[in-house]
Amino acid sequence: PQPAIARAVVDVVTTLVGLGGESVAAVDHRLDDALNVTERYWRRSAGVLPGNETEAHLADWDRYRSRMLRATASFDLIVMPVAPTVAPAHRPMDPTDYIYTLPASLTGAPVVVIQCGTDDDGLPVAVQLVAHRWRDDVALAAGMALERAAMRS
Fold first, then answer.
1. Which pLDDT tens digit goes with each residue over 92-134?
2. Are 8 and 82 in contact (CB under 8 A)?
3. Do residues 98 and 35 lie in contact, with contact meaning Cβ atoms separated by under 8 Å?
4. Backbone region of residue 108 per phi and psi (left: phi > 0; alpha: psi in -120 to 50; beta: other values)
5. Among 89, 96, 114, 129, which one has the highest count of C-beta atoms within 10 angstroms of its own C-beta?
6. In this structure, are residues 127 and 81 in contact, taking their beta carbons and an 8 Å threshold?
7. Could you tell me the CA-to-CA distances from 28 to 70, 71, 100, 107, 137 in Å, in that order?
C-alpha cells in the first residue's frame, strides 16, 4: 500500500494496543489467490466460466476460505488496508483497487471500515477491522473504541 495507508494501519494497531489490545503478527492473506477466486466467480456469475471449471472454482474457493480461517483462528481482529491507495481520481475501477477487501468477502468475515486520517493531499485514508465470522460485535467494538480515542485526541 501507499505510505499513508501503511502508516494508518500501524497507527490503528498502535492505538488498539494502547487501549489494551495485543499486536501479535502479520497474516499472509494470499491476495493473489483471493483475486483469482474472485475473478473466476465474476466469470461464473456472468455465465462465461466453462461448466467444467465450475467445480474446480468452488473447490478452490473453499480451500482458500478454509486456509484463511485456519490462518486467522488465533486472532480476534485483523487490521488491514481497505485499498492500496487513497480514493482514486475518476477512472475505471481496477480489481487491485479493492484487493484487500477480498479475503473478508471470500470468508464471510464481518468488517468495519473507519476513516483514520488523510494523506498529504487531504484525501481520506481508511482501514478495515476484520473479525471472525459471526463476531460482528468485535469489529464494531473495536471501531467504536477507535472513534472514542480519536475524539479524545
1. 778 788 899 999 999 999 999 999 888 888 888 999 999 999 9
2. no
3. no
4. left
5. 129
6. yes
7. 12, 8, 11, 14, 24
Nearest partner of 98 among 85, 114, 112, 107, judged by Cα: 85
Instruction: Supply the DSSP symbol for 25.
Output: -
Residues 6+ apart with CB under 8 A from 73: 132
List, for residues 125-143, the tens digit of each pLDDT value: 999 999 999 999 999 999 9
**84-102 in b/e burial notation, b at 16+ Cβ within 10 A?**
ebbeeeeeeeeeebebbbb
Find the DSSP H helices in 1-135. Answer: 3-18, 31-45, 51-71, 102-107
Cell for 113? 471500515
Q: What would the grid cell of residue 65 be?
A: 476460505
CB 115 within 8 A of CB 107: no
